[in-house]
Amino acid sequence: MLETTSKLFHRLRGRESGRELLRGTGRAPSCAQMLLEQIKEAGMSAAEWMAAADVSKSYGYQILRGERVPGRDILLRTALSLHLPLEETQRLLTMGECGVLYPRVRRDAAIIFALNQNMTLLETEELLTSLPERSLYAGER
Q: Which ranges in the chain belong to alpha helices (H)?
């Protein structure tokens, strides 16, 4: 499990634990590590995640090995497929070095709404189409 920010602050207060963290032994997990953890917590296999998030197998395994960093829309499809809460979705986007969801952007607001309503990927796509906003698949064409 990933350490919360408050736990990291606590470790940085201690002389030895702070030094250990700064030396890199407590290094922040990569996007791939976080993704693997989220998939496991959802009770899915890697193949099930790839099918649910509509990620090709070769690209999916490259992501999970840390060879490729997924784009924002793939991370959003992942969050919807794994039914992640908004906070975990924002963390996943941050780990992937993508912009977090911003409620003043209409497309992002729609995705925030979908996450909060526990909508499926298909339902979210229908919502985006109805607004009309860019699809979560638009960047792949």
A: 5-13, 15-23, 31-41, 46-53, 57-64, 72-82, 86-95, 106-116, 121-130
Domain ranges, residue 121: 5-140
pTM as predicted: 0.79
Q: Residue 137 gets which letter from DSSP?
A: T
Q: How confident is the model at residue 27 (pLDDT cuts 50, 70, 90)?
A: low
Closest CA to 52 of 67, 38, 34, 68: 38
As for how many domains the chain has, the answer is 1
CA distance between the termini of the chain: 35
Structural tokens at position 66 = 């840390």
- CA distances (Å), 127 to each of 56, 87, 93, in order? 24, 21, 21
When pLDDT is averaged across residues 66-82 and rounded to a whole number, the result is: 94
Tell me the chain's radius of gyration from C-alpha atoms: 16
Contacts 24+ apart (CB under 8 A), 121-125: 121/52, 121/53, 121/54, 121/77, 121/80, 121/81, 124/80
